[in-house]
């Protein structure tokens, strides 16, 4: 896609908003007024914008134009932003989201998640999706993978196929949830994740779930209240999508925002 830099960020307060809250800005100045840059990361980066993030990108959701970026093609650990891809692959391969399944031994336990699954727990596929996307439950994504493909390994193959179809050509995924202690090659880039995020947000069910601040799921008919890990949903114009953190990855976030005719994906 072509790369565009807007003349005046004050005319696009949502961009400033995202830069502040998502990319941990220290200082925000004006961009050079009249430049239209090429596709290289060096060309995209403007040193007048001081950010802590090693890699970042802002993309126009409608056109795919890159509005700003820093090292956006650098391979990084994506942490739980991985669940964007695993969830959309699951969604596209499930016919009945109200179907109740049993949690396998492999998908049981806490696994760095908000609460523990027990072997034999009964939960709907829809509630597994909510657990994966709203509270970033790692084993929920494993259970979805096992339902779709019978095992995680075959499901991950579907994830990598889908990533390439979307255009995320530099990415390679080794699991469904982004835990990377034993998966050194599980990596993506900011621009690849932006492409994945944009694709996912075109799915009605996906976009509804990731824009949900609080919800209730049922495990064995017992209601459990869940709260979205994405606290940016508390702010105007933010409509999703996914947070992530591991020691290797650091803090990660993919965000969809819209105001009037401006729709952005920021990673």
Tell me about this structure:
With 267 residues, the chain is an alpha+beta fold. It has 8 helices and 11 strands. Strands 4-3-11-10-9 form a 5-stranded antiparallel sheet, with helices on both faces. α5 packs across α6. The radius of gyration is 18 Å and the shape is globular. The N terminus is likely disordered.
Strand content: 15-25%
What is the number of helical segments per DSSP (H or I, 4+ residues)?
Answer: 8
Sketch the major β-sheet. 5 strands, antiparallel
Please give the share of residues in helix: 25-40%
In CATH terms, the superfamily is DD-peptidase/beta-lactamase superfamily
Q: Give me the secondary-structure category.
A: alpha+beta
Architecture per CATH nomenclature, i.e. the level-2 architecture: 3-Layer(aba) Sandwich
- Determine and state the CATH class: Alpha Beta
**Low-confidence residue ranges:** 1-13, 20-40
Number of domains: 1
User: What's the gyration radius in Å?
Assistant: 18 Å
Taking the alpha carbons of the first and last residues, their distance comes to 17 Å
Q: Write down the secondary-structure element order.
A: HEHEEEHEEHHHHHEEEEE
Large-scale geometry: globular
The strand order across the widest sheet is 4-3-11-10-9
Give the mean pLDDT: 85
Write down how many β-strands occur, each being a DSSP E stretch of 2 or more residues.
Answer: 11
């Amino acid at each position: 896609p072509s790369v565009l830099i807007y003349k005046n960020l004050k005319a696009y307060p949502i961009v400033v908003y995202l830069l502040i809250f998502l990319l941990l800005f220290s200082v925000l100045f004006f961009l050079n007024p009249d430049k239209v840059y090429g596709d290289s990361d060096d060309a995209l980066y403007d040193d007048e914008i001081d950010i802590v993030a090693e890699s970042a990108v802002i993309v126009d959701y409608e056109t795919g134009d890159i509005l700003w970026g820093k090292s956006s093609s650098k391979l990084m650990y994506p942490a739980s932003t991985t669940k964007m891809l695993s969830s959309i692959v699951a969604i596209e391969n499930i016919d009945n989201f109200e179907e109740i399944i049993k949690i396998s031994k492999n998908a049981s336990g806490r696994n760095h998640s908000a609460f523990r699954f027990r072997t034999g727990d009964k939960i709907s596929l829809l509630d597994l999706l909510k657990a994966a996307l709203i509270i970033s439950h790692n084993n929920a994504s494993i259970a979805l993978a096992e339902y779709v493909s019978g095992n995680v390994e075959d499901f991950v193959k579907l994830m990598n196929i889908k990533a390439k179809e979307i255009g995320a050509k530099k990415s390679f995924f080794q699991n469904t949830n982004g835990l990377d202690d034993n998966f050194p090659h599980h990596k993506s880039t900011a621009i690849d994740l932006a492409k994945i995020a944009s694709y996912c947000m075109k799915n009605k069910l996906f976009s509804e779930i990731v824009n949900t601040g609080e919800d209730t799921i049922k495990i064995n008919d017992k209601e459990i209240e869940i709260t979205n890990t994405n606290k940016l949903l508390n702010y105007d114009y933010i409509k999703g999508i996914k947070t992530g953190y591991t020691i290797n990855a650091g803090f990660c976030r993919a965000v969809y925002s819209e105001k009037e005719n401006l729709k952005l994906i920021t990673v």
